[in-house]
Amino acid sequence: MKKLLLAVDRLSTWIGQAFAWLIVALTALISWEVFSRYILNTPHDWNLDAQLMGYGTLFMMAGAYTLAKAGHVRGDVLYGFFRPRTQAAIDLLLYIVFFMPGIVALTWAGWTFFQDALAIRESTFSATPLPVYPFKAVIPLAGGLLLLQGVVEIVRCVQCLQQGHWPSREQDVEEVDVDKLKQMVHADGARS
């Protein structure tokens, strides 16, 4: 079971990291538009639509990655003081009552939106229209990935309730903890 959970974590991580490269493409797209608009005096009407779809895709495809890394916002001020079993019970309840129904609804509605957009070949309302249906395909895809990662998180909650400690996760990146950093470099915080 542990291998399966970590495999889903790796999938979510790989997809999240792959789509993170969109930020480079978006930076280039915005830079090109600024250069084109202010230096060459040739703005592009499609550019803003492309930027919005790119940022939307980046945001949606980061959901499963963030869930796999336990990076979503929660009330850590109180939550951190609870024992692992209490944390798991709270998480399990919230996953079942709020997360799963919400993500199922998102995925279902996203599939419907995508099908409707594909049927009419929906495009943006600009002089140079861009197709919208590929962007809308991202909604059910992101929802499906979130559902898969959500099932993994529910299994982790059940395992924590049974064992009294959280099962392991795939490691990726961590926020910088200044105290740990000082210990690593043997600094006491004083200037030399």
TrEMBL record:
**What is this protein called in UniProt?**
TRAP transporter small permease protein
The record places domain Tripartite ATP-independent periplasmic transporters DctQ component at 27-159
The record's annotation in Pfam families points to: DctQ
Which species is this UniProt entry from? Pelomonas parva
Q: Where are the transmembrane segments?
A: 12-32, 52-71, 92-114, 134-155
Note the subunit structure: The complex comprises the extracytoplasmic solute receptor protein and the two transmembrane proteins.
- Report the function annotation for this chain: Part of the tripartite ATP-independent periplasmic (TRAP) transport system.
Mind telling me which InterPro entries this protein's record contains? DctQ, TRAP_DctQ
| Sections of the chain in a coiled coil | none
UniProt-annotated location(s) = Cell inner membrane
Q: Which UniProt keywords apply?
A: Cell inner membrane, Cell membrane, Membrane, Transmembrane, Transmembrane helix, Transport
Q: Which PANTHER family match?
A: 2,3-DIKETO-L-GULONATE TRAP TRANSPORTER SMALL PERMEASE PROTEIN YIAM (PTHR35011), SLL1102 PROTEIN (PTHR35011:SF4)
UniProt lists the family membership as follows: Belongs to the TRAP transporter small permease family.
Q: Which superkingdom?
A: Bacteria
User: What is the membrane topology noted in the UniProt record heading this document?
Assistant: Multi-pass membrane protein
